[in-house]
Design goal:
Length: 228
């Protein structure tokens, strides 16, 4: 039997991202072969593990820890220009299957041509882009929200709709929104965990995904808020 291809996930670290914004990556990690192989779960569940590689990426590269909130430093694996994760040339094979963008401080974030090109290049190559909370700002600066149904932090949606008017923002009743290969989450930062659970259920449906989601105790909240 042919082995499944490795899913490569890039976590784009921008400024001092919030630790809770980064945390949904661990739900992916729980589904990986490297994690499940160490557990006492039955072979039937381990058979559903996903070959996975997770890269932590920033603009500078792996020379120093990337500082997050709560005095946490994350090890960086690559810069946005490194071959392992740089966007492919036109018509080339994509280097990332998933790009997760945890939210930076939206008022301090300074987009650059390099960062915008990195995000836009991956999106255009078919990489699934998942934004957590204010991670929708870098996506907006990169121009990938245009013409898409999107959402963002509820208190900031009025500002976002003015800043990025080419996107469709009428989704305040939803915890997350998906439109093609773009997923965005709104409300509190933990909605990113529910969004990733929904994404995993769609991409890798089955008992293994459900077991890991249940173990993490995420993904049980409805996509819709009970009230606006």
């Amino acid at each position: 039997m042919a082995s499944n291809p490795t899913t490569r996930i890039g976590v784009l670290l921008l400024d001092a991202v919030q630790v809770l914004d980064v945390s949904p990556i661990d739900i992916f990690g729980m589904l990986s072969q490297s994690y499940l192989s160490t557990t006492p779960f039955p072979a039937s569940l381990k058979a559903g593990a996903v070959p996975m590689e997770i890269l932590y990426i920033n603009q500078a590269g792996p020379d120093a820890l990337h500082q997050c909130t709560a005095s946490l430093g994350l090890r960086v694996d690559a810069s946005i220009t490194d071959k392992i994760c740089a966007p492919p040339e036109e018509g080339g094979e994509k280097t990332l299957d998933i790009l997760l963008i945890p939210g930076p401080d939206p008022w301090a974030y300074k987009p650059t041509d390099a960062l915008n090109g990195f995000i836009k290049g991956h999106f255009g190559s078919g990489t699934d882009v998942l934004t957590i909370c204010t991670g929708v700002y870098p996506a907006g600066h990169a121009g990938i929200l245009n013409g898409r149904n999107v959402t963002g932090p509820r208190p900031l949606v009025p500002e976002l709709s003015k800043k990025f008017p080419e996107a469709a923002w009428g989704n305040e009743d939803k915890r997350w929104v998906s439109d093609g290969n773009l997923w965005s989450s709104e409300g509190g930062v933990t909605n990113g965990q529910d969004m990733v659970a929904a994404y995993i259920r769609q991409k890798w449906p089955g008992a293994t995904a459900e077991a890991m989601i249940a173990m993490a105790e995420v993904g049980e909240r409805s996509q819709y808020y009970e009230s606006p």
